[in-house]
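Request: Mind sharing a record?
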Amino acid sequence: MIPICLYIPGFRKLIKARNEDANGNYFGYARSIWTAIDLETRRPTNVEELYGLTDYVNDKPCPVEGASKIPLLKDDAEQITSFDVKYSDIDINKHLNSIKYIEHFVDVFPLEMYQEKEIGRFEITYIHEGQYGTALDIVQKKDSDDMYILEMRNAEKAICSARVKWK
């Protein structure tokens, strides 16, 4: 068993950062940004008002570079695949589970690519909820030799975007 330590380096009104390490025995790092959603209105809530959250703020540095804005794709993106959101794809909030977004994105790359390279960095931006029963398309644009921009869409509405850098 490997213990995981989570700490919050700071937050703003609607989002908070969360860094993760392995309690001094570092095997890797992750950096994420979270938004709290009101379950009734389905709108973001002010995380500064969540009871006790400020007690966990820690200014410990994280060696993982912060995420940058992922550009939305235009008409020059290539449609790669489509899928319907099924029961096993959703979480307790009844929308596409975070890991399912990632799985669908990484599945667009051929096995040969994984045999030759590995993913060096993966960034993801959740824009709208992927809901049960929704048909979603994944489109892709090669940004550079080892960088791809992916977007999950419901018709023309962007649901989620990702940037994948291979090494």
Observations:
- Residues 5-56 form one domain.
